[in-house]
Design a protein that fits this description.
This protein has about 170 residues and is mainly α. The chain has helices at about 1-10, 30-35, 45-55, 70-85, 95-105, 110-165; strands at about 40, 90-95. The protein has a domain at about 115-165. The protein is built from six helices and two strands, in the order H-H-E-H-H-E-H-H. Helix 3 (about 45-55) packs across helix 4 (about 70-85). The longest helix has about 55 residues, at about 110-165. The protein is elongated, with a radius of gyration of 32 Å. Keywords: Coiled coil. This is TRAF-type domain-containing protein.
Length: about 170
């Protein structure tokens, strides 16, 4: 409903199918009831299967590089789900779909889990950066100590050389 209303508003009431003018949105309870009774599969499972069937499509980049242009996040989601070997066997009525997605779907949701994956990756990278900073500090300290040793040795040699020349 929302999409249709938005489309009609943005296109001055033109029909999305035949482009004739003066279309108006109206709710139809009979149609709404029929739609809510339609049998559907889980859209996440559908996206997963669609991603797997598109996996062989090459586009853009170097040979062998895979990319799903329609949804770049699907590749990440596909990888996350295939790591877990998850499938969703939901087949039910349209009216039950939202409840399924919110409560019982075992597939990773792009909206919910990809940000948490990114946060996890950023935490790992942050820890690696801290470790590298510590290594740099240690190396700088070692370099400073070596430099002080070299200065001490040069001072000693200069002193010895000065004493020998007297």
């Amino acid at each position: 409903e929302e999409c249709l209303q938005k489309y009609l508003k943005q296109n001055n009431g033109k029909c999305p199918i035949q482009q004739h003018a003066h279309c108006e949105f109206s709710q139809n309870k009979a149609v709404r009831k029929l739609v809510s009774e339609l049998l559907v599969i889980c859209p996440r499972q559908f996206d997963l299967k669609k991603g797997q069937s598109n996996e062989g499509i090459k586009s853009g980049g170097e040979e062998g590089e895979l990319w799903n242009e329609s949804n770049p996040n699907l590749n990440l989601n596909l990888n996350l789900n295939s790591k877990n070997n998850c499938n969703c066997n939901f087949k039910g009525k349209m009216k039950d779909l939202k409840d399924h997605l919110d409560k019982s779907c075992n597939l990773i949701s792009n909206k919910q889990n990809i940000p948490s994956e990114i946060v996890n990756e950023l935490n790992v990278m942050s820890e690696q950066i801290r470790e590298l900073q510590n290594v740099v500090k240690d190396l700088q300290l070692q370099l400073q100590l070596q430099s002080e040793k070299v200065q001490t040795i040069l001072s000693y040699l200069f002193f010895v050389f000065a004493c020998l020349n007297k």
